[in-house]
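worker-3 :: picked DNA-directed RNA polymerase subunit K
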Amino acid sequence: MQNYTRYEKARIVGARALQISMGAPILITSTTIDPLYLAMEEFDKDVIPITVKRR
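worker-3 :: C-alpha cells ->
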C-alpha cells in the first residue's frame, strides 16, 4: 500500500463512494450498505482500483 496524503485518501474514498452509490460492483464482502463505509473498508483492504498521479 502506498502512502497517501489525507487529501489523496479523501479524494479516493469519496470518488469510490460515489461510484458505489451509482451502482458500481462492490469489491469486498461487508455487512454495511452505506457507500462511504464500504469505500473506506475497500481503501483499508487496498482493493480500490484508483491510482494517484503525482507531478
